[in-house]
Amino acid sequence: MRYAAAYVLATLAGNTNPDVSTISKILGSVGIDCDNAKAQKVIDACKGKSVDQIIEEGTKKLSSLPTASAAVASTSGAAAVATTTTNAGKGATKEEPKKEEKKKEESDEEGDDMGFGLFD
């Protein structure tokens, strides 16, 4: 993902034909070591495509990946079915109240890595 982002950044900056050294320079500017083979693979895959095409293709690929929230929803749905089935077998009509989980509140100080040190 970082190589594709560097390629898109170079293209948006006006470089119509980014090479490995350009991607390496962009990644190095934020402290990331560049694997030249991976950078070349991204360059080959993106060659001849507009930024819009690259983003559209990437979005399609990302939307096909499973997410953790989908897995949680499916397991909690299965638990609800099991509970309903058990209660129906006992003839019970009263449902147990759901327990609410408290979410940890994040402070502004905890996300220091998001600013990349630009605002210190």
From TrEMBL:
One family name in Pfam for this protein: Ribosomal_60s
Bias kind Low complexity: ranges: 73-91
InterPro entries: P1/P2_N_sf (IPR038716), Ribosomal_P1/P2 (IPR027534), Ribosomal_P2 (IPR044076)
Keyword line: Ribonucleoprotein, Ribosomal protein
A single BP term in Gene Ontology: cytoplasmic translational elongation
Single GO MF annotation: structural constituent of ribosome
GO CC, one annotated term: cytosolic large ribosomal subunit
Chain spans, region Disordered: 73-120
UniProt feature, compositional bias: Basic and acidic residues: 92-106
Protein family per UniProt: Belongs to the eukaryotic ribosomal protein P1/P2 family.
Function as written in the Swiss-Prot or TrEMBL entry: Plays an important role in the elongation step of protein synthesis.
Protein's recorded name: Large ribosomal subunit protein P2
Organism of this sequence: Rotaria socialis
